[in-house]
Sequence to fold (208 residues):
Amino acid sequence: MNLIDRFIAEFDQGLRTVLAEAQTLRPFPDRDKSESQLSDSEKRRAAALMRINHSGEVCAQALYNGQALTARNPATEAALREASQEETEHLAWCEKRIRELGSHKSFLNPMFYAGSFALGAFAGALGDKWNLGFLAETENQVGKHIEGHLKRLPDQDEKSRAILEQMKIDEARHATTAITHGGAPLPLPVKLAMELSSKIMTKTTYWI
Fold:
């Protein structure tokens, strides 16, 4: 497949991510949990947190697809594609939970996907060690966000909690895989820039 064909395929994947309903190969993590009695304010808070996590997965998938497009090592590309597939499952889990809570996905997702894909492609072009280092740092930051959301969820919301706990396990594994494949620690200014971008995304997505 030449570069133009790959760009077309990635564009199609982007449309599917932001417009189509995501699918999961694994069972939903909350399948054994009963729906809890939540007040209207608790539902709104849980839905807003799950919306942030959903948008975070949109960004992650875009990053990994962009990185895989410009990755130079087949093993690196395979690791990125595997991570991207699991992010698709995370999207499905979050989408379902957001619907159950009576809310909606972020309207900003198309913009987030486009920006993240471009950033991922740039990271991939820098070389595989930085590409994988970027993946590891992304997963580490996502894991921190999930940990914070687990503390902010209503205590009785076991369904949302089960989803986030499995996502946290997956993200940690992705980070470990990236380091194992040769990912390099990112410079501090890059980490800080990533954290700032993440804060902007979470603040806007909570409400929109």
